[in-house]
Amino acid sequence: MKEQHVIDYNSYYQRLLSGVRATWNDLRKSRPEESVYLFGLSTDSDTVVLSLFANTEEQFALENDSPEYPIEKWYVNEESELHRIGRAHMDDLEDEINRYVFEPESDDAFDDRKARLMQMFERVFVELDSEGLFGEGEMRHKVMLMLEIVDAGDEEWDSMIEVLKRINPPESVKEYLQLLEAMRESDD
């Protein structure tokens, strides 16, 4: 009989907090002269994928030559060196949520697990931000934190935007939200 695996959410939270903190610190040490403007955690609709990504003004300038699409600044290409950063800190955490997980039997078990993990991901950013990890004052306003769902449906997309607003000061998300609004208006 297979051993059942249930996530110990308290332990997982602490390990995730440590992994995200270590990844940010590694990023800053490896690129001390670069201007980090984006740092995020990416998952999928089933919350079985988990990775971190970032971007800097300098890396974006090297990889992109599409001034006609300014929204691209906020998306990290899969070929970028800043896509899936911190693997040494994050791979075991991803493996853990990617296993078949036996949660309490109920019709809502999947949705409950997903909601719990998404809240945990958000809390990690809030806690690290409250410690000043991503900077303070004007310095913090230059960094946008993002919790991304890569295959988001409409409801998940709306939720991503709400989380974005909750975990960032308004100055950090102003340009991104303006670009999104302009895109929506041009689609109408």
Characterise the protein shown here.
By secondary structure, the chain is an alpha+beta fold. Helix content is 53%, strand content 12%. It has one domain (9-187). Strands 3-2-1-4 form a four-stranded mixed beta sheet. The protein is globular and about 50 Å long. Pfam families: DUF4303. This is DUF4303 domain-containing protein.
Number of helices: 7
Relative helix content: 40-55%
How much of the sequence lies in strands comes to 5-15%
Low-confidence stretches are: none
User: Structural class of the secondary structure composition?
Assistant: alpha+beta
Q: What string, H for helix and E for strand, traces the elements in order? A: HEEHEHHHEHH
What would the principal axes of the Cα set say about the shape? globular
Give Rg in angstroms: 17 Å
Distance between the termini: 55 Å
Number of strands: 4
Give the strand line-up of the largest sheet: 3-2-1-4
* Overall tally of domains: 1
Biggest sheet layout: 4 strands, mixed
Q: Mean pLDDT, nearest integer?
A: 91
Give a short summary of the structure.
By secondary structure, the chain is an alpha+beta fold. It has helices at 9-30, 57-63, 87-98, 109-130, 138-141, 154-167, 170-187, and strands at residues 36-43, 51-56, 83-85, 144-149. Helices cover 53% and strands 12% of the residues.
